[in-house]
Amino acid sequence: MPPVLLRTLLIALLGALSFATSVAAAPFRIIVTDTEAPLVPNSLLNLAAQEGYFTREGVEVELVSVRQTPMAVAALQSGSGEMANISLEALLALHREGVTDIVAVHSSDKSLPFVIAARKDVTLDTLTGGTFGIGQPNSLDHTLSAAVLAARGVSLDALTLVPIGQPAARGQALMAGRVDATTLSIGSYLSLPDRSGLHLLVDVQDYFAAAPVVSKVNVVKRVTLETRADDLDRILTALTRAARDFAARPELWTAAMAKARPDVSHETLEQLTGYYAGNWTVNGGVQRSELLFAQTWYERGMDQNSRYIADPARWLSLAPMDGVLRRLGVSDLGDTLSR
After folding, report:
1. Which terminal residue of the chain has fewer beta carbons within 10 Å of its beta carbon, N or C?
2. Is residue 16 a part of any domain in this protein?
3. Which residues contact 216 (CB under 8 A, 6 or more apart)?
4. CATH code at 35?
5. Residue 275 binned pLDDT confidence (cut-offs 50, 70, 90)
6. What order of strands is seen across the sheet that includes strand 83-87?
């Protein structure tokens, strides 16, 4: 082979090798809707990164923070990440609209431990005509709370909705009297610096009773199932190991959250571990029976002549978690396996 041709081939091969290496080394970007570790089991994503679970599985992860589920969906669709943590309701809406390339592979949080907090002089009977703080229109807190309040005889249509953003901002607005009531996680509520002028309109148990559904799922594009299969397996393994550690030893979550959220008291964090017992997605969170129930719950208020419930096979891929469970086995510390 002529030297010039040989040199050309070697340069091409080195270039291809360099490109392949750079692709393989690209971080796996996970789009989250919190700017800091949230005070809910969905903190699993942040803490798995902070505590080195992803690193120990040999995968580099970058958390990309955006505001609320709609922006997370847009970021995933634009290629700004490989996975997104979004509401199940948003995923179902995408598939109703004809989007077929996004599927759920995991859930970090089966059901958010929400409460509805209000000023002390506000009751369910007097809330009508008042102001209600939401993240933004059609955000998870908005849609779930609409159903929860309806179950208690209050329609959101009878309230003035005030888009405020993240839970911390909604809590501040409530304390300042800018809104009469709002939805927060129990963690966000307990961490408020001054709750003396507030009370709970709907507590954790009543909220869950009205909305006992899977709230958030981790989704990927179908192409990611093929092009980043090994990385995805490592991601899900890391999340499963972290969930099992927090379920078996709640003090690990308390310690990790103390590092992530030094603004929250140790007493509050210890209180929260009691609320979260049994809520960790130790088997991946994507359990068929729970997801079917949640889908029916979300869809039941829709016009059945104009909309339909999408076949779970269209929006759910169990294969990635099944591979993890074959290696790690099934745990009895949290979500019960259902296929």
Report:
1. N
2. no
3. 42, 85, 86, 87, 88, 107, 108, 109, 112, 140
4. 3.40.190.10
5. confident
6. 61-65, 28-32, 83-87, 216-221, 102-109
